[in-house]
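Re: weekly structure request thread

Next one in the queue (94 aa):
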Amino acid sequence: MDELSIKIKIGNREYPMKVKAEDEERVRNAGKLINEKIKLYADQFGIDDLQDLLAMVAFDSMTDNLRSAEDVDNDNSVAINKISQLNSLVAQVI
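Done, posted below.
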């Protein structure tokens, strides 16, 4: 398990971190997306305070995360219901 030492710049700070080689692209992409959101909010709302911008990005990311979790839960419920229906049909045939 090879770990790489990389630096990710978020806002105006660099953050050193160690990541698995297979995670490097994902981590760098996450940093890029955070910076894009910071710029978007700064331009859209005319906010200069980096702490406010980071808080907005964190809040937006968390709501997206919660929405995704709810979607997965809903998909799982639908799948479980379909499997139950199929099991009932198979049981009737057997």
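Residues 3-93 form one domain. The chain has one domain: 3-93.
Next request, please.
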